[in-house]
Amino acid sequence: MNNIYFTVGPTQTHPKLGEYLNEGLEKGIYSISHRGKQFGELFTHTVSSLKTLLNIPPDFHVFFIGSATEGMELILENCVENKSFHFVNGAFSKRFFQTAQGLRKSPEKHEAPADEGFDMHKASIPADAELVCLTQNETSTGVKIDMPDIRALRLKHPDKLFAIDVVSSTPYATVDYDAVDCSFFSVQKGFGMPSGLGVLIVNDKCIKKSEKLHAKGINIGSFHNFPALLKSAGKNQTPETPNTMAIYVLGRICDSYIKYGLEKIRTDTDLKAKLLYAFLDNNPRYPAFVKKEPWRSKTVIVAETPEGSAPVLKRLADNGFIVGAGYGEFKDTHIRIGNFPMHKVSDVKEILNILK
Amino acid sequence: MNNIYFTVGPTQTHPKLGEYLNEGLEKGIYSISHRGKQFGELFTHTVSSLKTLLNIPPDFHVFFIGSATEGMELILENCVENKSFHFVNGAFSKRFFQTAQGLRKSPEKHEAPADEGFDMHKASIPADAELVCLTQNETSTGVKIDMPDIRALRLKHPDKLFAIDVVSSTPYATVDYDAVDCSFFSVQKGFGMPSGLGVLIVNDKCIKKSEKLHAKGINIGSFHNFPALLKSAGKNQTPETPNTMAIYVLGRICDSYIKYGLEKIRTDTDLKAKLLYAFLDNNPRYPAFVKKEPWRSKTVIVAETPEGSAPVLKRLADNGFIVGAGYGEFKDTHIRIGNFPMHKVSDVKEILNILK
């Protein structure tokens, strides 16, 4: 029996992954030059398919990088001279903040408990903060931030750049590109792909900021700084030899999502999330970690496990379902369930049946 | 008819690539957690297999990164406060130098013409240079540097760190780890893999230097700085979610190379290189770009094409063989032929037959 992965990423792969991987091999795509016409067409197709699927405005640039973690580094290097401001309520929002520290910036933060979202207007964002960093979907705890809240904050701070981490909510999340200047995600979650590719989406305000920093003699990185990524993207290329296989497969999966319909993916996701939270709310053995509905992520569902996470994980694994342990300090007390387009309603019901 | 790629990377893929990719899928490797036991075993296996194949001393660390280009950035960020010194005779040695400039270091260089190697003792390396950067095999022009020359230089400068780019010569090149502190390569050349993974091999002197720079408040990068990579490697992990698929396949291909025997791979490579250069030396239509034997790369063979590169490339392509155009300024006047373990003697003979 093959396991079914309901982890939060890497997770269950797209059902057609094998077909797409072999198709790329058959077509010789893993041998082609990253400076040639065939690669340019492949690059163009994937960018165009991503823009269609995610409704990315034409004036935003799509860059391919190694991981979402690299995305944090690049955004901070290219958009911040001194100060970024971070909303922190979990491991990944903390990583964003700590990355700024590591890069010798002077970040500040507004914190919330791990099981809560933010009352955003309570945050005092310093006047000299250049970039506001938001983890729209906190993969470590399953807390989300709603787009209208981000938009309201943006309207209060029109002078600042806004960056959002949508690593574990893409393609489900509807990103309001009027309210954000850059966003990033990786492909091993909502796209059901092997890990090893990150996607960074930035507007011209970010590019201009990076050029300004560079002109001031500030280190904005080398091959993956925004001007270098933009220059290559203008030729339908990447600065380095990229993960061509992943760029190809991502295009194929985007096509399949477009064909199925993103609204239908969202409806499916909502249905599965509803089933999961309803179960947790009715089973004291597995209380939902996030108590308030507006903060509950639809794509990362976290349950407390008073009996410890290990026996729960084992019970599910014995039945062929792999779900995630809690993250970091919650390793032994939480389970995390991914809810992505590859995950079937029937399997969710089966999981709940096992847990019951 | 499927094309056979004799390009210099990405190039012809390993004959078992399809089998290994599907095996990884079957085993669920693209779904596993990068923080779990199974990933740790996979990581350990690939590192161990690489160390065996390439005869890497036990005290060197193996790090997985996104590309060789990233390797240049990381080495410069982590090993250089102000000054690196570069031997430059082609596009990739120039990229290494320019990466240092981009990172706001103050590099210096010793240059040689594109078709020549270096008379190393003629280079005046400044006393304050912290790192000497050498492109052991210049992929743009097919010029190599011999290890004993690097060793002799190192003995003259025992106070400096030495970094070598072995991107297009691994696994053929015998790296003298007494003479170098770090080296790097990518997998889409001598390993016949899809691009998207770089390998960085560093010793403790490099780690110590990066820690020293960090302690001084210098930006050494964030998630992929040497201390971060080392900390994760100590747990058989990577800082970010990595290209697990590529790490897995690399281990499998290393195993196959070990089984076949690296010495046999080297003998095969020498034989194919001899055939190619003998042909070029006897055919004025395709003179070898590099005239002197000691400078001639065995893995990247470059020919001048007085008739222009386009008709030559077409003639070969019409017969199912894809070779590389010249790099950069040599695009229209050179062809470049890769000579890697996947390339068969019989196909080399066929190529020469077509060219004749």
In the predicted model, the low-confidence regions of chain A spanning at least 5 consecutive residues are: none
Enumerate how many helices of chain A there are, as a single number: 11
Overall mean pLDDT of chain A: 97
Assembly type: homodimer
Kindly name the structural category of chain A: alpha/beta
Order of SSEs of chain A, N→C?
A: EHHEHEHEEEEHEEEHHHHEHEEH
Total count of strands of chain A: 13
State the distance separating the first and last CA atoms of chain A: 22 Å
Strand order of the largest sheet of chain A: 2-10-9-8-5-3-4
Largest sheet of chain A: 7 strands, mixed
- The amount of helix of chain A comes to 25-40%
Beta-sheet strand percentage of chain A? 15-25%
Largest interface: A-B, 59 and 59 residues
Coarse morphology of chain A: globular
- Compute the CA-based radius of gyration of chain A: 20 Å
Q: How are the secondary structure elements laid out?
A:
The structure is a homodimer of 356-residue chains.
Chain A: E1 4-6, H1 17-26, H2 37-54, E2 61-65, H3 68-79, E3 84-88, H4 91-102, E4 108-111, E5 131-135, E6 137-138, E7 143-144, H5 147-156, E8 161-165, E9 182-186, E10 198-202, H6 204-215, H7 226-233, H8 244-260, H9 262-281, E11 300-304, H10 309-318, E12 321-325, E13 334-338, H11 345-355
Helix pairs in contact in A: 1-8, 2-8, 3-4, 3-6, 9-11
